[in-house]
Amino acid sequence: MGDTGLVPPAVRLPGLNLFLVGFLVLFLELACIRWFAASVVFLQFFTNIALIASFLGMSCGCLAAGRRRDWLGYFPFITLGSVAAALTTLLAYQYWSGLVVDIGPSIAIPMWRSS
Question: DSSP letters of the chain?
């Protein structure tokens, strides 16, 4: 029974799980940041709020990993609530757009024509 250089499946599986969970968390974070910034008008001015919220969510997830309660079953409902809140905010903005103070269109001035 010599060393064949192969990693036993019991060791390889947690590494694969860690990679998949990390990939999915970062993908969901990027998707939420991009989608919220594109859909929720108020987040266009405060782009770092979505980034801070995603890091806070990942931190809370890491803290909750040691608990006995399985939060994975609640994930679809929390995600659905986040999407519903974003769509509600967008609909409220469209409905009451006459009451909102808007800064107007953004006019980009090229740096070579600024003087």
Answer: ----SPPPHHHHHHHHHHHHHHHHHHHHHHHHHHHHHHH-GGGGT-THHHHHHHHHHHHHHHHHTTSSS-GGGGHHHHHHHHHHHHHHHHHHHHHTTTTS----------GGG--
Question: pLDDT tens across 2-13, in order?
Answer: 555 666 665 567
Residue 42 lies in a domain: yes
User: Is the overall model pTM greater than 0.70, yes or no?
Assistant: no
> Quick check: is 113 in a domain?
no
Query: Is residue 55 a part of any domain in this protein?
Result: yes
Query: In total, how many domains does the chain have?
Result: 1
Domain with 27 in it: 11-94
Residue pLDDT, tens place only, 27-54 = 888 887 787 777 776 666 676 777 787 7
